[in-house]
Amino acid sequence: MHENPLISICIPTYNGEEYIFECINSAIKQSYDNIEIIISDDKSSDNTIAIIKDQLNKSTIPHKIILNDCSNSTAENWNNSIQNSNGEYIKMLFQDDYLYSNCIKEMVAIAIKNEDLGLIFSLRDPIY
């Protein structure tokens, strides 16, 4: 493992305009700097993609936006984002979730100290 591995934040989307701004903003504001953001969109008919493009085009973070030709199953959309990633590790982030600014940094530190781990996850704080 590298000391500063590339982390792919994979975000599958579909008609997520209500929460996507906060989601993307939380990915952009990570204290860990070696990230890419991969969006796989299942043919949203709302402003999801416009919001994503506006935010990502203002950042210097490498990113990909994959626009699927048709609506897939949820699992296919997740897998599509993963298949288009380049990171040594994957962090799944769903369109109605957000990350604390130190999330990726802390997860990478755990992975570096414990190379035998295959999965790292964290508890969530519900927001209503």
Describe the fold and architecture.
With 128 residues, the protein is α/β, with parallel strands linked by helices. Helices cover 31% and strands 18% of the residues. The protein has helices at residues 20-28, 48-57, 74-83, 103-113, and strands at 7-13, 35-41, 63-67, 89-92. Strands 3-2-1-4 form a 4-stranded parallel sheet, with helices on both faces. α1 (20-28) links the parallel β1 and β2 (35-41). α1 (20-28) runs parallel beside α2. It is globular. The chain starts with 6 loop residues before the first strand and ends in a 15-residue tail after the last helix.
Q: In a few lines, what is going on in this structure?
A:
The chain is of the alpha/beta class and 128 residues long. The chain is built from 4 helices and 4 strands; from the N terminus they run βαβαβαβα.
N→C terminal distance: 38 Å
How many helices? The count is 4
Helix percent reads 25-40%
User: How does the major sheet shape up?
Assistant: 4 strands, parallel
Order of H and E elements: EHEHEHEH
Overall structural class, as computed from helix and strand content, comes to alpha/beta
Outline: globular
| Low-confidence runs | none
What is the C-alpha radius of gyration, as a whole number of Å?
Answer: 14 Å
Number of strands: 4
Question: What number is the mean pLDDT?
Answer: 92
* Largest beta sheet: strand ordering: 3-2-1-4
Strand content: 15-25%
